[in-house]
Amino acid sequence: MSSLLLTGIGSLVTNDPSHGGPLGELRDAALVIEGSVVSWVGSRRDAPAADSSLDLGGRAVIPGFVDSHAHLVFAGDRAEEFAARMTGQPYSAGGIRTTVAATRAAADEQLTANVARLVTEMRRQGTTTVEIKSGYGLTVADEARALAIASDFTDETTYLGAHVVPAEYADDPAGYVSLVTGPMLEQAARNAKWVDVFVERGAFDADQARAILRAGQAKGLQARVHANQLGEGPGVQVACEVGAAAADHCTFVSDADVDALASAGVVAGLLPAVEFSTRSPYPDARRLLDAGVTVALATDCNPGSGYSSSMPFCIALAVREMHMTPAEALWSATAGGATSLRRTDIGHLTPGARADLAVLDAPSHLHLAYRPAVPLITQTFIAGRPLS
Ligand code: NIG
Ligand code: FE
Questions:
Q1: Where is the Amidohydrolase-related domain (predicted)?
Q2: pLDDT by residue (tens digit) across 250-289?
């Protein structure tokens, strides 16, 4: 197993509290990668010898971003819908059906190529782990196909057969829930780690969501929920009740929801690129953080509510629009995402962690929000291997 010493690191974010500060940041640092894992971090002066070394010339190194919420298996786009929103149309979950029609009609190769394109885009922007949902198939075969494709790109695959009730079941939502909890789940569970439900007016209610999440759990899947995106509702409470890992969106939450998230230890996934692209109010991150809720930041990359693949963009929005400190935003985009996915091997750069990291053409992580929309990521390492 060969070792690589990264040296001349101006600022190294470890997310290891033993190094002090909110991010365990080390100055003038070095890091050794052995095979696929980090084997040593510390001061440049103390760095051990390695088979090869790379001087980063004072650049910053951060843990790779963990994007805990994305919908990448789809065909077509909805650029016209976005343009209409920017001139006053509201976002409606009904647009999902447009993408369902395009996705069902697409060949496997076309869907795979689209996922590959988006994953490449994400990696170039420093993302080293991405969760990928189904949810634009909504038949037994199309959901199974989406998850098979997703599993070629990530271990973090999510069965979202309960995205909306498809048009052909419009008169029989109970029949659709039976399909989602029965034959569709049966096939989907082969390639899914997670089960998710869009709990919202116009999508699924609390009883349907409980039934779907419990059925998934009985098949060995873990729960996560689309909760409280378009208005207050039961999503957060259901997530807490079933022991979900995450309640994502959390745009409209009550005091009781905030308390429930804090006491159940459910991660609140905030997805500010959606509020940007739907002209909605941003979630109140400060209220969640001040109540002790663990916050993850993710892109929610999808063709409808927000088509950004960029975690740096989410960080810039979180800092500028949601009043998170740059340190809180970076933690939420790395360690927070890992917590949301119940992963302990990623989201931090400590000995034994997977060597997932991003090199910034900047002296510190502050530049992620300070220089929005600038492509600062010059190199991404995944499991110890550089991207290009
Ligand atoms: O997370 N909210 C539900 N699902 C996606 C949007 C999907 C779409 O509009 O195509 C979301 O925002
Ligand atoms: Fe989503």
A1: 61-384
A2: 999 999 999 999 999 999 999 999 999 999 999 999 999 9
Strand partners, 225: 197, 247
Q: Is the pLDDT of residue 94 over 90?
A: no
- Cα of 71 vs centre of ligand 2, distance in Å, is 6
pLDDT tens figures, 199-227: 999 999 999 999 999 999 999 999 999 99
Tell me the β-bridge partners of 284. Answer: none
CATH of domain 65-341: 3.20.20.140
Q: What is the pTM of this model?
A: 0.98
76 lines ligand 1 (CB under 6 A): no
Report in angstroms the alpha-carbon separations of 125 from 66, 211, 291, 387. 11, 38, 31, 11
Residue nearest ligand 1's atom 11 by CA: 305
CB-ligand 1 contact for 300 (6 Å cutoff): yes
Out of 3.40.50.720, 2.30.40.10, 3.40.1190.20, 2.60.40.420, which CATH number does the structure's domain 3-63+348-386 have?
2.30.40.10
Across 94-115, b (16+ Cβ under 10 Å) vs e yields ebbbbbbebbbebeeeebbebb
Q: CA–CA separation, 246 vs 249, rounded Å? A: 10
Ligand of minimum distance to the alpha carbon of 158: 2
Residue 354: phi and psi, rounded to 5, are: -65, 140
What angle (nearest 5°) sits at the alpha carbon of residue 209, between those of residues 260 and 242? 40
Q: What are the residue boundaries of the structural domains of the chain, listed by start?
A: 3-63+348-386, 65-341
Residue 305: strand pairing partners: none
Identify which of 226, 249, 250, 275 to mutate to test ligand 1's pocket (most ligand atoms within 8 A of the CB): 226
Express each pLDDT in 7-42 by its tens digit: 999 999 999 999 999 999 999 999 999 999 999 999
Could you tell me the two tokens for 68? Answer: 């805990």
What does the pLDDT read at residue 156? 99
The token duo for 112 is 């795979």
